[in-house]
Amino acid sequence: MVFHISYQAGWGIIIGTVGANFNMYNLSKILHEKYGSVVKMEGVFSRADMVLLFEPEDFEQVYRSEDILPLRPGFETLVYYRSKMRKSIYQGVEGLTNAQGLQWRDFRTKVNPALLKPKLVKLYEPALDEIAQEMVARLVKIKDDDYLRNNFHLEMTKLSLESIGLIGLGTRLGCFQDNLSPDHPARQLMNCSKDVLDLAFKIELSPSLWKYVSTPSFKKIIKVFDLQWEVTSKFINEAQRKINERGHDIPDEDKSIIEKLLAIDEKVAIMMASDMLFAGIDTVAFTTTALLYNLATNQRAQDKLREEIQSSDQNKRYLRACLKESLRMYPVIQAQLRRTSKQHIVGDYIIPEGVDVIAPNEYLSMLEKYYPRPKEFIPERWIAEKTDPLYYGNAHPMVTLPFGFGIRMCIGRRIAELEIETFVRRLLTHLKVSWDGPPVKTVTKIMNSFALPYHFKFESVK
What we know:
The protein is of the alpha+beta class. It contains 17 helices and 14 strands. The protein has helices spanning 24-35, 56-65, 76-85, 87-90, 101-115, 118-122, 125-141, 145-168, 185-204, 216-246, 257-264, 266-280, 282-296, 299-310, 317-329, 361-364, 413-430; strands at residues 2-4, 7-9, 12-15, 19-21, 38-42, 50-53, 336-339, 344-346, 349-351, 356-359, 431-435, 442-444, 448-450, 456-460. The N and C termini lie far apart (58 Å).
């Protein structure tokens, strides 16, 4: 099945006769119902053609075949910025966000030991718990419901940045201070996080002439890239100074992530920290908000989780089940993508080299075909026995992929889960959360976000 993309602009996606849709879920639903399990969208403005595959067996076939050196295109503007405009600074170090092929594998191999060891990540649990306590105290202190209705996402961004700053930059940033000045590093990094997503949506996913002329949006995003690199570099240099003053006579297992990265190379450390800031702020903020929303609108699950938290059980299976269920319903990234490096035959279709193959996981994860009662928040499905009809394993394993697939799976998964679980444990120990308003609405840009306003209510646990 073939149809043409007319253009993508503003908040909606305008595609042929399909019409305007404000999130990827609705778009996927319309395309699936109208065109079937294989849908081709012809690229515009020099973009690759895209093929949406709605059967998990089909995109699994492609993804597994492409998982040696998988191609997953990043922001073209960031690639241009690092490889062309600031080539003398980056010197070929691309990072995980944009690197492809052997260059990506080389960088990933260098940083894996510093980021994937569970014991190393657990070193941050006490400090993250301290941050969580401060945020809970902040929520208790904020009495203005109007403020939270319009700024809850900002508070979760502060929590996320403070946490990732501790891990990626080796220091507390002071995000919880009131009235941060415009030149405060925390304020600058929060603005960078927001501006990158807003500008990238305009430039990368809307018709833009930035490749031919320096547009206003392109100039703005370059300034954002410069500022983030500048701020990140200052923190990394300060971390290096402190390490040098302290000396190196500590066991390797007690060294921080930033220290391990600096031992590899300073540019690798700065690049990894920069990528963590790009990928780890809004993603964790959104996921935390989604989990709180699901718990606020499902008091039975919240009460059960609080009982587990207050118990002596150290396993915390139900907390992990709640997070998995929330990620199934509200993933940060709506779909997975791989660009083909060779021709594939999927069913009766030939998919040539250079095509972006999309797996619409958010949409598939909400189908009765894969999960009984898919639109209900049922954490029990992730801990049910195999004989239980709810058991998550009855679904195809490629349907729900909140952290990606294969060797390009999110390197920060353990860190993100630790941040979220630590905060939720601390929050539910002290506060009951409820939702006093209509169901939340999801908006799709580069990643999912929630439309304002928020209707959270927080009360002390009796």
